[in-house]
Each structure stands twice: as C-alpha cells, then as structure tokens.
Design brief:
alpha/beta, TIM Barrel, eight-stranded parallel beta sheet, 10 helices, about 45% helix, globular, 6-deoxy-6-sulfofructose-1-phosphate aldolase activity, LacD_aldolase, Aldolase
Length: about 270
Amino acid sequence: MLAVDQREAMRLMFAAAGGAPVADRVLTDFKVKATQVLTPHASAVLVDRQFALDAVLDAGAVHPGCGLIVAADHFLPGNGIPVDAVEIDEGVDPFRARAQGAVALKLLVLWRQDEDPAVRRAMVADFVARCRAAGLVSIIEPVVRPPRRGWEFDREAAIVAAARELGDSGADLYKGEMPHGGRADNATLLDACRAIDDAVAMPWVILSSGVEADLFGNAVRIACRAGAAGFLAGRAVWQSVIGARETEAVLRDVSVPRLRRLGEIVDEAVAGR
C-alpha cells in the first residue's frame, strides 16, 4: 500500500531539495501525480484531507483497483517539530469519506512512555468506533517518541511496548515502525519483528519512515517472514523523486519499479511462510 499523506514533513523534503519556500500547491500537485502514476500498482493509497483528498478525487487520480484510505489525524506542532501531538481530525467525516469512495481511515498515535496510556487507548477506541459506524476499516499507526521528561529512550523497546499497549485495541490494521530502521543483521531484525507479531492481535504492516530506501525491500521481506501482512509506505517509494523537474516521468522510471518490486517481495515472503 502507498502513502502520500505526509504534510509538513513533505514540505520539508521539498525545501531541502530546492531551498525555496514551498507553497501548498507544490505538495498538492505532487500528491496528485504520485497517486495517478502509482496507484495502478498499489492495493491501496493513503491520502490526507489537508492537501490531497479533494484534489485527488477531482482529478480521478485513484486507479479503480486501488482502495482509498483517508488520514483522520490532526497534527499539532510544538517544540520546534511539525508533529508534537495528534488528535482525531474532526474535519474528516467517516460517512462522507465512505460516500467519496474511501474504504478505510488511518490514525497516527504518538507513543511516549511518560504519557498516560489511557488517553491513547481512549482516542483509539473513539477512532475505531467512528470507523465501524461508517463501515470503514480502521488503521492505527503508533509511532514512538522520546519521553517529554528525561533523556533515556530505548526506541526498540518502545516499539514493542507500543505494540503491546495498542495491539489489542480492536483496530483492524496496525501500521508499525520497522525495528532498528532496517539496519541490523537479518537475525536481529527477524527477532524484533517477531516480537511485534507476538504483541499485536490484528494484521500488521510496516511503514518506511526512518528506513533508507535501499534497505526497505529487505525490511519488508523480514517483516513479512515474521508475520507482517505487507507495507504501507511512501518515502521509500517516492522520496528520491522530490524536486525532480519531470516529476511524472521520474515517478514512472524510478518509483513504479520500486513499488512493483516491493509488492513482489511481499508476495514471495508471505508465500514462503
């Protein structure tokens, strides 16, 4: 599955590539082009309300064989970062989203060990209930962050702790981070992914943020061997295209083969389990 729901993070990518202020239109145009070019090769695409949903629908950019997922998270900036906290986006009406063709909603959940787990679980429960009421699949995306107080942070332990806390939340799909950023040896990666698989009581997939594009294929292979159902990723597919002059052509030449190969890796790994 393909993700193009990045917001201020994508603006930062464009700024790094070009060095000039990045208008909202730049993000929207890229998201529409990426959706048009890549969704014939994806089982689903995740888009955001802020920059993409209306434009993608108006352009008829989603391939008929590709499911539409709408991000239902509202990002709150703070402490110098674009996403310091998250709440459910009240601007996303699940019933309207389904009427527009969506099959699922996604919610980012920031996990910090020094914040109240009951607050996170309550937000997830609310989100799942909204999805079920509208007949939509619920996807949660726990992403771990260092604690707000103190300096000690074991990212790998936090990833598993988040999975244990939210893996039985009743959501339909768990979108998790790849342990070790995919940079450890295969045996270590496999053990870490098996820990996630043991912790969650629902199908799960990995995201590509924090994983180098050249390592993501192996990360997908290892995660699927451990029990993952696949991936829901964006950066590993299209980040290298950011800033290209001929965006559509480079998406076809670079991103399409990457996405297709990742799909093949999922099929091969799942068949070999």
